[in-house]
Amino acid sequence: MTTNHTPMWKDLGLDIEAHDALLSVLGQAYGDIYLAQENRPEGMGYFDFVMSEVHGQRIQELVDAQAAGRKVIGCYCVFVPEEISLAAEAIQVGLCSGADFAMDEVEKYLPRNTCALIKSSLGFKLAKVCPYLECSDMVVGENTCDGKKKAYETLGTMADNLYVMDLPQVKSGEGRALLKAEFLRYKEAVEALTGNTIDAAALKKGIAIVNNKRKAMARLAALRHNPVLPISGLDALIANQVFFYDNPVRFTDAVNALCDELETRIAEKTSVIADGTPRILVSGCPMAVPNWKLPAVIEASGAVIVAEESCVGERGCRNLTDDSADDMDGLMDALVDRYLAIDCAIFTPNTERAGHIKELAEKSKADGVIQYTLNFCQPYAMEAIPLEKELEETGLPTLRIETDYSQEDMGQLKTRVEAFVELLK
Ligand code: SF4
Ligand code: SF4
């Protein structure tokens, strides 16, 4: 029996009519893009269920946890250390949004030429359609790109629980010291929010939970490197997106169960693609739920995505935290080292990213790279030009795509992707 979640959504202050409209679009798109795929692993049933209840059962779990005294922390960027949140028994969820909503209203607050991810996130706040945002006890905004840091000033006038985390832009000694100071400040803020003191044992436990989650995602990523491809790029993307919402331990178990099945599929040579299907690496801006536009176009054009060099993907999951230290300072240093290795385009210089893309392309046996940039995202758009040159010098064909969440450029997008896929055949 389906539960009626409307009373819970009303209690959270959602605009029920607008929220119903959002859920209906999301459900339709999921059916058209995901459920219509053939030969899916059975383990995707778990992720289909999570997606069908992403605003329902999961929110009920968060609300129940709050009633039992736990706190919910929403965040927009992979720089917020979930290990610290978990160490204080808080629950961390992602808030980035992948669909246009209330854009006319958003453009009263933000310039038109702001990236879709930022506009969408503010749109979800203005339209009151995101239960994760509305149930968060603390919302963390991270000073990454200029667009985000200025948008948080605006969001701060609408949300009285916004906590801004500063981040370095340069990976120098000073940059590292800033990140460590910010992680220590975050730890204190989380302790104040939850009333729980974080000691080394609690932090080790948080690190273990998140390391296990990342290990499971690394296992999934590695299985996609096999010539016998056991899962589509779209399905792998959903696992990467659910990473940000689900209970971390349950999610880890579901990903590992999926990987067990994918190993069997590989052994039995059950591939989701025909021999000779071009294998694509997608690199660039993160894709938040329900942003499935470009992956759907790529996989409908006769190619398959074998890896994502993205924060919703390899960049967000790569690297574990060393948990060998037994004291707080050592563990905090290990966290800083792990997060400072993220090669986001907000850093200058960000030279290690090109090496990571080449390495990932080689491991995943990609025939080509599609660089995905959201319109008006300067950090990724600027890196795309030298990256294209560097990748093509190594013999990897690349396509640069700049797009947003609208459907207006679908025709042009399909034409360009189809031409690129033809080139790779
Ligand atoms: S791309 Fe950069 S700013 Fe965006 S989530 Fe990743 S690390 Fe954060
Ligand atoms: S996509 Fe680009 S502009 Fe948008 S939030 Fe991320 S880094 Fe900033």
From TrEMBL:
InterPro entries, per the entry: FldB/FldC_alpha/beta, YjiM-like
Family designation: Belongs to the FldB/FldC dehydratase alpha/beta subunit family.
Name under which the protein is recorded: Benzoyl-CoA reductase/2-hydroxyglutaryl-CoA dehydratase subunit, BcrC/BadD/HgdB
